[in-house]
Amino acid sequence: MSESFDRPEIPAAGIMAGLDAEDRQLLGDYGEFLPVHPDQLLITEGKGQDSLYFVISGVLHVHTDTKEKRTLVARIGAGETIGEVNLFDPDTASASVTAREFAQVWKANKADLEAFMSSYPTAAAKLLSGILAGMSARLRRMNEKLATREAEAAFQSFWS
């Protein structure tokens, strides 16, 4: 990680863990590095969203907002990603993302990643494997949360 952000690097974490240093350096050329300041909105719920974001440092909050309240969906930290789904199934953002503290993020859209895949197919296969593993783990956690909530609701209805 680059503290000054004048020479940003993608660390070997999360979806990038399977890529060697040279591949991560090359991949960095296919997107853009963004400084994200506290309370800065990175993604807006309901707006078009076509990019993958990899958090290099800092903490982001994924949330949904209504007139009555803000609901925290997830905390995203270093080595984690957001936006993967829209690379494969383009749509609008299902939630907003705001920096909780200063963050360094690498952003790449579908065209960026397709260009990387064309130029470096072996590294791209490792990256795609990392993305699928990350999405699978997230889906597994969501299924566990749903099962827990269903069990709690069943328990509550039994005792009501």
Walk me through what this model shows.
This protein has four helices and ten strands, in the order H-E-E-E-E-E-E-E-H-E-E-E-H-H. The N and C termini lie far apart (about 55 Å). The chain is α+β, with helices and mostly antiparallel strands. A hairpin with a 4-residue loop joins strand 5 (about 60-65) and strand 6. Helices cover about 40% and strands about 30% of the residues. It has helices spanning about 20-30, 85-90, 110-120, 120-160; strands at about 30-35, 40-45, 50, 50-55, 60-65, 70-75, 80, 90, 95-100, 105-110. The chain has a single domain, classed as Jelly Rolls (Sandwich), CATH 2.60.120. Strands 1-10-4-7 form a four-stranded antiparallel β-sheet. Pfam families: cNMP_binding. It comes from Haloferula sargassicola. This is Cyclic nucleotide-binding domain-containing protein. InterPro entries: cNMP-bd_dom, cNMP-bd_dom_sf, Env_Response_Regulators, RmlC-like_jellyroll.
Q: Main sheet: which strands, in order across?
A: 1-10-4-7
> How many angstroms separate the termini?
53 Å
Question: What is the number of domains?
Answer: 1
User: What percent of residues adopt helix (DSSP H or I)?
Assistant: 25-40%
Mean pLDDT over the residues: 90
Number of strand segments: 10
Radius of gyration: 17 Å
